[in-house]
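Example S7 (structure tokens).
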């Protein structure tokens, strides 16, 4: 497996927090329409309970940091949905980009924008599905192995 350089330090991530041309970032916690988010998740291929509207709505409502990427028409092309205390830790639960926006740097820029908002004293953690495990190191993210989980029932 190829080694990629780590992006280290808050300033380095802030420098990457620029949306691609024609894309605008916004914080949308408390405002993002759960049905619109569900459509994005479904289109992106991210495995989430997209057929359970109440659960998806609860996921959106319970997130205290949601950064979105929209094109000039307002179409939702990407989102980073997180839980954080804005002081020490952040769990980036969902990162998804519509196929129409993939390959433009939207995902990396959403991660960087999330880190910019969090500030230098707050770490960002995400758990990855197997397929994207090779993608995150290419972005400059550090792989970690120390963790434990109690899985959900469904």
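Recovered sequence:
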């Amino acid at each position: 497996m190829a080694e990629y350089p780590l992006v280290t330090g808050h300033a380095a991530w802030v420098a990457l927090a620029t949306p691609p041309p024609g894309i605008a970032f916004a914080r949308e916690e408390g405002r993002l329409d759960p049905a619109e988010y569900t459509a994005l998740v479904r289109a992106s291929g991210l495995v989430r309970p997209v057929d359970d509207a109440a659960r998806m709505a609860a996921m959106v409502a319970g997130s205290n940091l949601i950064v979105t990427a929209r094109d000039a028409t307002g179409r939702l092309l990407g989102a980073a949905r997180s839980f954080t205390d804005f002081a020490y830790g952040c769990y980036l639960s969902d990162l998804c980009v519509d196929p129409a926006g993939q390959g433009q740097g939207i995902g990396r820029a959403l991660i960087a924008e999330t880190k910019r908002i969090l500030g230098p004293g707050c770490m960002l953690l995400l758990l990855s599905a197997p397929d994207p495990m090779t993608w995150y190191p290419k972005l400059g993210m550090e792989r970690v192995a120390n963790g434990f989980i109690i899985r959900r029932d469904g």
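Notes on this example. The helical segments are 10-15, 34-44, 53-61, 106-118, 135-138.
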